[in-house]
Amino acid sequence: MDLAKQAKIVDSIHDTLDDFVGQRLKVRANMGRSKIIESEGVLMQVHPQLFIMEVDRKRGRTARQSYQYVDVLTGMVELSQNGEPLFEPFIPENDVLGADFTEIVEEDEEETVLS
User: Does the pLDDT of residue 107 top 70, yes or no?
Assistant: First the structure.
């Protein structure tokens, strides 16, 4: 996916989330090393590069967390409302590693078969 297309998608994510300001959303964030955090809260603000959620914590407390639109683009952050995802995956599963990697794997498989 080229940079112009990615920028256009990030803009569309921003515009979509702008319509959800003040509404409750569920966030599922992949923090790496098999650590996934799920929380629920209110979308407070949208900015050009990130959005801010006020998420629920224990004993009625809240905390503010910020996420980048690019994390939504790559699937590291998933947003849903009432069990319905706000965005479909932008990058197909077979394209996550890129076409070049797929070609290398296919070449290796051919070499393995011939050996």
Answer: no
